[in-house]
Amino acid sequence: MLKSSSFLPFSVVFSLCLCRISLKKGLSIRDQMRAAGVLDDFLKHIKYDPVKKYQPSQGSVVREPIANHLDVSALRASSGTPQKFLVLFDTGSSNLWVPSTDCKSPACFNHAKFQPSASATFSPRGQSYNVSYGSGSVAIVLGSDTLRIQSITVREQELGLSQEEPTQPFYFAAFDGILGMAFPSLAVGGTATALGGMLEQNQLAEPVFSFYFSRQPTYDYGGELILGGTDSQLFQGDITWAPVTQRLYWQVALEEVAIGQSVTGWCSQGCQAIVDTGTFLLTVPQEDIESILEALGAQETSYGYAVDCSDTQSMPQLTFGIGGARLALPPAAAYSNGYCTLAIEATYLPSQDGQPLWILGNVFLKEYYTIFDMANNRVGFALSA
Ligand SMILES: *[C@@H]1O[C@H](CO)[C@@H](O)[C@H](O)[C@H]1NC(C)=O
């Protein structure tokens, strides 16, 4: 279902998380996209560049609610009136962009648009890039402005202003733009990342951010992003730490995958897992899809991998060996996808080192509070509260 990306030397595909965003009609964006047949995947470029060392200081800890509108970032305009945007905080990409008043695409008509002339702090940078996603490219022109997220202020933050956006899926998205939180090396055009700006300008109390996704999201509350810290109220038990294996994505080694009591052996030569808040499902390497369907008793259908709804409680759980711990995904998380389908899909790309690549999307992140440690390049997992 993915478009070929063979024109890119390195390309990666992910699905945007549209799961928690509800529209007033009561249908989630994801449902609407599914209904419209446009539940598409995305892809993006890769570039490598190491992350800078952080000097801790008296920065902020900011809690951003993840609700029907995900999160808000405000780019301050000259008059003191902020231009506000809802952005997807995406650990699977690194570019920051918002729609601009130059954009004439349908997707820009129903979203907030940045007006450069209304901001005295805006500077054009001139360069243009295509930030590619599976369903098409967002054409951006680079500029810079003050970025604000509550008490976090980053001056002269580079940001992309969209000139053109594909209708699918951006027209359907409840967010206006995307704030990428992966490593700077992944940023198309080598542009400065928002997190890089926060670190350089000492805006975070600690060089850490963490995500909590509620298992039962409501219209008003889907979870929280904590920028600059963690909240022990939102998890229980010990934190399992896993080092980042490749500083592009928040990617860690996956030591084993078990189905029920059986270790599959799929990772006997090593596996990799990307922790991606911008992916909804759990994605499974293509070569393992058949086996996993068989083991879980699922059938491939036009609407996904169907399971017998009456059986879901007795189905085996999936367990992931990460950082020496065994992190289980209970049947309720792996199966109750709302349609009696498995909350999994095939991963469409090889990992850069040839090991099978999994993507731990929201389905997994609802079970595990996740800490992204930028000072030590490691990811922490703890059972969600
Ligand atoms: C972006 O893609 C479009 C369409 O393929 C192309 O015409 C344009 O030159 C590209 N822009 C850049 C900056 O690569």
TrEMBL record:
GO MF entries: aspartic-type endopeptidase activity
Pfam families, per the entry: A1_Propeptide (PF07966), Asp (PF00026)
Cross-referenced InterPro entries: Aspartic_peptidase_A1, Aspartic_peptidase_AS, Aspartic_peptidase_N, PEPTIDASE_A1, Peptidase_aspartic_dom_sf
UniProt superkingdom: Eukaryota
Any single biological process term in GO: proteolysis
Keywords assigned: Aspartyl protease, Disulfide bond, Hydrolase, Protease
Family: Belongs to the peptidase A1 family.
Protein name in UniProt: Uncharacterized protein
Organism: Geospiza parvula
